[in-house]
Amino acid sequence: MRVDLFDFALPQDNIALRPAVPRDSAKLLNVSGDRLSDHIVSGLPQLLGPKDILVFNDTRVIPAQLQGTRGEAKIGATLHKRVDLRRWQAFIRNAKRLRVGETVDFGMDVLAEAEARLDDGSFILHFLGDEPVELLLERAGTMPLPPYIASKRAIDERDADDYQTMFAREKGAVAAPTAALHFTDELMAALAEAGVGREILTLHVGAGTFLPVKVDETDEHQMHSEWGRIDAATADRLNAARQAGGRVIAVGTTSLRLLESATGEDGIIRPFEGDTDIFITPGYKFRAIDGLMTNFHLPKSTLFMLVSALMGMETMQAVYTHAIAGGYRFYSYGDSSLLLPEG
């Protein structure tokens, strides 16, 4: 499909630079089939049934943005995906000034060798020394806010908390699973009282989620892979919930993509541990999920393609037109939507 089919005009005023306070006071656009209704995230329990299951991603964002030097050249690095205990794949700014075998000094006694350059232009960085890389990043790194926020304001101490979900446990993401940023202890208690269940999986979101689609046709786009895990007990409970008439609702496109990667054509969710580069576009047949809670995405992005696959392109164009006109806030710190295709 042509990528320009997924374009739309978004006023800059609709881009959120800070999250709602409290988190569950953000707007929520309920899309049930082709019917739209406006709500607040704290009202989510009234929109779900007592057998429904929300599936959250417990990945934790690490301070994966680094600024350093190689000689007199300034080098920026955004870590994308862990290779092993000391190596990370990274997207490099000013990459023309960095060659394989050279060392980048990120300050605070954090050094990394450019060990290899991959076909997509990214590098494998080998962090030197004996200290765990996690400690090096805590010392020298900053939160990797999306470009559409970082280009408009400086990263500050608030972001260290604002850009983590309440479920964040497993360190390894370089982008937050932002749909879950809206949840609070109070909201989770209200959902439990309403009989709505929850399950947890892990997908370490990579920096590739921010990369623009630069090709003209979706078939030509190469998705970056990300590591995820669903254990056997979680898969069994999700399958049982669906068999009992409940709906599996992914909280965020990260949860959705991992669930779909773990599910066969028979609709059975299976244990999964490994890389996935699933790319969902219109025409895809969903196997694992019955709904999606997600923020509002960039024009021509793979994530807008995904929601268009779930709800239909015409419906999603109408949804985004409604959201823009209604003052909904877009992107990582923005408002939310609940997409239920069989409304």
Describe what you observe in this structure.
With 343 residues, the protein is of the alpha/beta class. It folds into two domains: 3-61 and 161-340, QueA-like, CATH 3.40.1780.10; 65-141, Thrombin, subunit H (Beta Barrel), CATH 2.40.10.240. The protein is 21% helix and 27% strand. The protein has helices at residues 133-140, 147-150, 157-162, 185-193, 232-243, 253-261, 302-311, 313-325, and strands at residues 27-32, 35-40, 53-57, 59-61, 65-70, 73-82, 87-93, 103-105, 111-117, 123-127, 170-173, 197-203, 226-230, 248-251, 272-276, 291-295, 336-340. The strands form three sheets. The protein has a nine-stranded mixed beta sheet with strand order 2-1-17-16-14-3-12-13-15. Strands 5-6-7-10-9-8 form a six-stranded antiparallel beta sheet, covered by helices on one side. It has a two-stranded parallel ribbon with strand order 4-11. Strand 1 and strand 2 form a beta hairpin. Helix 7 packs across helix 8 (313-325). The model has no long low-confidence stretch (mean pLDDT 96). Monomer. It is an enzyme of class 2 (transferase). Its EC number is 2.4.99.17. It is found in: Cytoplasm.
